[in-house]
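Lay summary. Proteins are chains of building blocks that fold into shapes, and those shapes determine what they do. In this project we predict the shape from the chain. Here is one chain we studied, written as its sequence of building blocks.
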Amino acid sequence: MAQEHDTTTVGAGPSSLPIDVECFRDGLIHALTLPLATTTREDINASIRRVRGHLNLLMGEELGYDSDPAVRDLFRQAYALLDLGRRPSEETPVFEAFAYLRDTALVTQRLLDVFDAFRRTPDHRPGIQLHSGNA
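And here is the predicted shape, written in a compact code that computers can read:
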């Protein structure tokens, strides 16, 4: 059965994979509510991988990049966070990895809001209201 699941996504591009908004939101809430004092580096790394996966999928969707300056700004922030030189390594201090997780989750959350607005409003026009967040 696992092989059956794996073969269904082989060669699938980001826009062909479904986005489960509630699952993404739950993962982002989890990442944003992790307590620094009691969270292990392994948990931080796992959350980073999960959030980056969500971010990559969202960036493969049509979100109004060409017509909405706010969305273009979010994409610029996302590309900067996904840059290999910016990602935490094993040598990165825990606090910096934690801050990277938080920054990445906030940008992902804002892109998820844009995606959700598109999904709910088929006749979406540029300039939708993004939830405020410090990213």
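What the prediction tells us: Helices lie at 2-9, 21-32, 41-59, 69-82, 94-120.
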